[in-house]
Structures are given as structure tokens and as C-alpha cells.
Write a structure and sequence with these properties.
Layout lengths: L5 E4 L9 H11 L3 E4 L2 H29 L5 H5 L2 H7 L6 H10 L1 H23 L3 H16 L12 E9 L4 H11 L4 E8 L4 E8 L5 H10 L5 E5 L1 H7 L1
Parallel strand pairs: 1-2
Antiparallel strand pairs: 3-5, 3-6, 4-5
Amino acid sequence: LFKGAHWILCPDADTPAEHFPRLHELVTSIGARVIALPREDHDEAVAVVSHVPHIMASSLVQLASRHADDQQALMRLAAGGFKDSTRIAAGSPELWCGIAFDNKDALSDGLDEIQGIIGAFADALASDDRASLTTLLADAAAARRALPAAWVPSTERLLEVRIPMEDRPGVVAEVTTVTSSVGCNIQSIEIDHVTEDSAVLSLVLTDEGDIGQLSAQLINAGFSVSFSPLTAKEHTHVA
């Protein structure tokens, strides 16, 4: 539940500024990793990478079951690929029914989109279009091979980002969601209050994500940003 697991926190304009750093520290201290997302983005993301795949896995098992003969010869022919891609279909129906209806809108949109993708494969077959089918397969294969085996950040290459900010509702949520959106991982977060109405937000980042995009998006959002490299030893001293 914790070690190496991703915990998604969804701060918004009503989240008190100090609450996110406190919860972030708690979650990361027990070995988990934090992703900050707006609630709507969270729902869309988990629909694509979790909820739609569960429905697809269940659909594949339904398809195979309908074509299995009395001796279940088809099921005995099912190789590792089929078992791997349908493993999640064995999950609790009651639990997944609840999940599906809790995220009904995003899941419905995802299912509509996947129907269109499957339709593109079907159209290529129907029109004997080998080039299009090869392109569809190649694009998917390349994207799958590009996934890293594991996201393991270096603990020796840390970067501190200091952001002077107006102490207003939602400012921490704005910065942290931008940071997550460009793939950067926040190792720690602190708020140094300068006056009653101003503060400096300090983020320590691992060596992940697009720092250039982070800088550009924060500047475009009206923030002033400074970066300085840290070593793991310095970060321990600062903390």
C-alpha cells in the first residue's frame, strides 16, 4: 500500500496551504510517492489506465467464454498473453461495479474512445489495408516499449525550486499540479512565510520530468522561479 506506491492528492482552491505539505510529508515518509492532480484530471487518468482496462479484460474473457466448447478446449489453448491481459478480470464484481459508477462519466468517455480505436483496427482489416494495420500495431508497440520498467529516481541528483508567492487560497494546489503535470516528482515541500501575505514555496525535486516545461509553465502562470542543485546530503541537512 505504501512502499513505492503512487498516492494521488487532489488539492484545490479550498485546500489550506499548509495541509498539502503536511500530508505530502506523511505519505512520502512511509515510502509512497505523491502525484498532485485536479480531481477531474484524476478521474480521467484512472479511467484510461485502470477502469477501461478492467472492462476490456472482462470483455476478452466474455468473448472467450462464448466461444469455448463443452470441453473448454479454447480455454486450455489460452497462452500467457491471454492470461496476462485478463488477470484483472478476476477482481470483485461488486467492487468494480461500484468503481465504474463512481467514475461513470470518465469511464463512459474512455469506452467510447476505445471503441473508436478498435474500429480503426476493424476498418483496416475490412479494407485489406495492411499499411494502416501495421502502423496501428507499430505505434502501440513503440509506446509500450518506451515505458520504463520502473520509475526509480536518483537520490543523488536533487533540485531545489524556490517560488515566491502571494499567500492566497489555491496557490499551493496550482504549483503542485503544474509540477506533476510535467512529470516532476516532489521529494519534499516547505512553505517559508515572509510576511502575513507572502511566502516562499520550496520544492525539492528528483531527477524526473521536464524541468524546462516546469519553469515555462510556472513563469507563464505569473510565478518567479529560481533553481539550485542539491545533493542528498544537503537536502538531509536542510530538512
